[in-house]
Amino acid sequence: MKRLLLGRPYRSDAMAHTLLPKRVALPVFASDALSSVAYAPAEILLTLSAAGATAFLFSPWIALAVAVVMATVVASYRQNVHAYPSGGGDYEVATVNLGSKFGLTVASALLVDYVLTVAVSISSGVDALGDMWPYVGQHRVAFAVGLIAVLTAINLRGIREAGTAFAIPTYAFMIAILSLVIWGVFRIFVLGDDLKAASASMHVKAEHGLFVGSSFAFVFLLVRAFSSGCAALTGVEAISNGVPAFKPPKSKNAATTLLMLGTIAISMMAGIILLARKTGLQYVECFKVDPSIGCTASQIEGPAPFTKQPTVTAQLAETVFDHFRPGYFIVLAVTALILVLAANTAFNGFPVLGSILAQDRYLPRQLHTRGDRLAFSNGIVFLASAAAVLVIVFRAETTKLIQLYIVGVFVSFTLSQTGMIRHWNRLLRTERDPAIRSRMKRSRVINTFGMFMTGFVLLLVLVTKFTKGAWISIAAMAVIYALMVGIRKHYDRVARELEPTEERPILPARNHAIVLVSKLHNPTLRALAYAKATRPDTLTALTVNVDTADTRVIQDEWDNRGISVKLTVIDSPYREITRPIIDYVKDVRENAPRDVVTVYIPEYVVGHWWENLLHNQSALRLKARLLFEPGVMVTSVPWQLSSTSEKSVARFDRRLGYAPARDARTEENASQR
To answer: What is the pLDDT of residue 290?
Structure first.
């Protein structure tokens, strides 16, 4: 089943096969940032709706401010990928230039943000799918978890395979949204069509007495709308973490992909906001849906023109393509797809970052190793599990999840730009070439402007969203930070314990061998022979008397065979096996603390997985207990059953995807057998 879903494994020297050209890297690393144009404008309009219909006039200015921040971040990260192309991204920049504590802060922020990226993207995709198929909306949690499972399986097949699978939907989304914007602008400004969205007829009033011009309260609302719109910047940092996945020249290709991402994302978001204003589109939060009167909210006067409020892109598509119905469905379909596939950005960023942190001993080392398909499989599975838990807890509701969003990414933005400023300052102290110094100073100016912009947005996000759910993200970052510090301390402590000293190891005075006997059969005889071959100082055959009749049979067979090793029988009045053996071994050790005890355990080697359920259970329990006893060595003596014949083993290897070559000597031995 694993091979069917994931395919055959790749050799380690096939890494070049997984490297991405720019045309594939764009949908792989930029799908999150590109997909944000499907919900970032909606968040801006939704926040402004609290001040009434007049407040929507400010949406273009807010979108312009978001576009400036995005352009600044893209320009800043183009400096990052050239200066730090190893794939550490913000974590490496902060660690090298600001110290390990700041690096861990960035890492914890990014790990939280990647998990939220999957949860928010999948939930938004389910919302969009619900616009087309109401059944999906009724079972949103189940569909969201199922989509996470599908994305996990695709990414486990390898980064290049995932990029190829997601390239067509991502490019289709870009073409569809740009076509929507271009055709809408053409109809309004060239043909002079009077396009009106369905929601333009709603009468939206201010909520709680809030209105345009009410000084501080309205300014705070604008700030909150701006911070919500900055969700469009999530995913920009993923390219700096994925530089090693690009084809050479890696840094240049990554920087070009960043420029393409910024240009396309800003164009699409600006176009959607422009069309929303020209079509009179209004977007409010529905608190109740009544089939007789439609969607109701506290700031809507009278009934709404729909029973379920469509998304912003859905309303614009229906308005712009009013005479071309397929265009409307195409926009809805590709929007739903891109929102789901946006989670793929996190599936590429999280495992790479987890691998780097594991290499630095801040996360379990299992996250550092690549799987059969040269992807960081453990990181992918961990990310999917954490995102699925979030989706279930928050019922896949985008409005609730979005409040937890973007805090982490702006923490990493700000600290990364601060680190880059120190990076350029350090280089400028030693660089003497005027041309290079001029280029460095220009880069420092870009990063300085980026630091102030992203730091300002971070402050706004914390102020406007802290009580709305951002505190959960901050708490999660703190927990992950503490966890990583604890893991590093553990690894450091273990390393100190295992460090070789100048003292030479002291050989044990004697070796006491104990062979465990359950029955007198071939595995037991082999274990006895092997124990004798090691020439121990003492050799004991040990059996536990659980059933008197069975024990007498063993003793009789032992005497009949004339085995020279004495059979020791220990009683077990409560029919236990493990405890009496452990106590016996402890007694031997206590009587001779400088000696070593070697316990030989005969074990069956089976060829089928289900046979393991029928054999070796007592041996596994014994080994698990004996490993904690100091001065005790445990040796397994295998006995291969007929199910482990060469044919069975070869078939098992083929199922695992391995086909070892057979040389002439192997073929000759096989023919002789």
So the answer is: 46
pLDDT tens digits, 19-48: 777 887 787 777 777 777 777 888 888 877
- Please report, for residues 126, 132, 279, 295, 604, the alpha-carbon distance to residue 322 in angstroms, rounded to integers and kept in the order given: 24, 17, 13, 22, 73
- Domain 511-640 is of which CATH architecture? 3-Layer(aba) Sandwich (3.40)
Average pLDDT over residues 197-212: 66
- Residue intervals in the chain for CATH 3.40.50: 511-640
What sign for the dihedral angle of Cα 355, 361, 367, 371?
positive
* Encoded tokens for 363: 């996360």
d(CA 496, CA 494): 5
Whole-number Cα distances in Å, 502 to 492, 496, 631:
20, 14, 21
- Residue 578 CA, chain-centre distance (Å), reads 41
Which residue from 603, 617, 587 is spatially nearest to 516, judged by alpha carbons? 603
CB atoms within 10 A of CB 71: 16
Asked if residue 36 lies in contact with residue 176, where contact means CB atoms within 8 angstroms, the answer is: no
> Which amino acid makes up residue 392?
I
Q: What is the dihedral of CA 379, 384, 386, 389, to 10 degrees?
A: -160
- The helix/strand/coil state of 20 is strand
With vertex at residue 417, the alpha carbon angle to CA 469 and CA 484, rounded to the nearest 5 degrees, is 55
Indicate the CATH number for domain 2-492.
1.20.1740.10
Region for residue 204 given its phi and psi (left: phi exceeds 0; alpha: psi -120 to 50; beta: otherwise):
beta
